[in-house]
Amino acid sequence: MMKPPLDDSARSTVNESPVRSESGLRRALFAAQTAEDNRGIDIVVLDTRELTSMFDYFVIATGTSRRQIHAMSEEIDHALEDRMGDRRLGIEGYEESRWVLLDYGDVVIHLFEPETRAYYALEDLWGHAKRVPRSTEKVDAGSGP
User: Fold this and answer.
1) How many Cβ atoms sit within 10 Å of the Cβ of residue 100?
2) Helix, strand, or coil here: 49?
3) How many domains does the chain have?
4) Of 26, 41, 107, 119, which sees the most CB atoms within 10 A?
């Protein structure tokens, strides 16, 4: 199994302002919605603000094939950049596609194949993080961060 990707060189170690955090939540929910729109399953958004100053939210989703994980990652990237003005800081695992990590600084998105998700069990590892409820309503992308 591969090691968990984590490159924190581009992240701030200082807690973000409430405005940034609100923007992060909106972007995390929009990324989760985009994953769902692209047939992602078992989508979870975790609020990690009380546990680390490295990032504010995790979005975790499962894809059913390498092609689908690629499509999900590309659509999330386009949605966050084109509709919310966010730029990805890094990507890990795209070539192998068992676990793709998209790093947006305060929002980190994990796209897994089912076996890899079960193996790393991020929801258990970050078990003290609050789960963010997801509405059935579409998230408004707004005009940027």
Assistant:
1) 26
2) coil
3) 1
4) 107
